[in-house]
Amino acid sequence: METMTTGRRSILATSFVRCAALALLITTTTTAAKADEFQGPTFRKGLWHFVRTLDMVAHRKPKHRLLERELTACVDPTVSMKATFASPSVGSCVSARPEKKNNQYTFANRCDFMGPVSTVITVHSEESYTEQNELSEGQVPRVELVVAHRIGDCGAGADLGAGAKTLSH
User: Fold this and answer.
1) Is the torsion defined by CA of 4, 6, 7, 11 positive or negative?
2) Residue 112 C-alpha from the chain's centroid
3) Which of 13, 17, 59, 87 has a Cα at 20 to 30 A from 73?
4) C-alpha separations of 124 from 24, 37, 55 in Å
C-alpha cells in the first residue's frame, strides 16, 4: 500500500515537473518571440529636439492650431517607437499592423490616447523622423505632427526635462 502511495506521488511529481518545464519553455519562447517582434525603426540615443503641433481641421481646408510645444531632451526614441508599434487594442478600437513602404510606416488604424488614429511615421535617418497622427472620428477632427531630430550627445549632467520650452498661439 505504501508503495502505491509513493508511486502516486512519484507520478504526480513527474507530471508537475513536466508541466512546469513546458510552462517555462512556452514562456521563454513567447518572450524571445516578442523581443524579435519589433520590426520598426531604430534611432540613436542622444539629445533630441521635438516639435509637436496639434491642429483642428475644419472641412479639410483651414487648420486651427490648438497646441505647439518644443522639447529638447536626452532620450532614446527607439523606446517610444516600440510602444507605438505595440499599440494594444482598447475596447472596440483594434490596432492594425503597420505597413512599411520605403522609409514610411503606415498604421491604417492605431489605438492612441486621442482615440483611433491613422499614423504615418517617416524615417529620414537614424537621427530624424516625423510622425503624423490623424483623428477623424467625432466632431473635431485633429492632426498631430511630431518633428524630431537628434542634435547631439547627452552631456554628463543631462536631465530628461532640460531645455523644455512650451509655445502657445
Assistant:
1) positive
2) 10
3) 87
4) 41, 22, 23
Q: What is the mean pLDDT of residues 43-59?
A: 93
pLDDT score for 166: 31
CB atoms within 10 A of CB 41: 20
Torsion from C-alpha of 34, 36, 38, 41, nearest 10 degrees: 160
- Residue with the larger pLDDT of the pair 109 and 8: 109
Distance CA 58, CA 142 (A): 9
CA distance 150 to 27: 37
Per the CB < 8 A criterion, the answer to whether 137 and 115 are in contact is yes
pLDDT of residue 39: 84
The pTM score is: 0.69
For residue 95, give the amino acid letter. Answer: S
| CA pair distance 6, 59, nearest whole angstrom | 78
H-type helices in the chain, by residue range?
2-37, 77-85
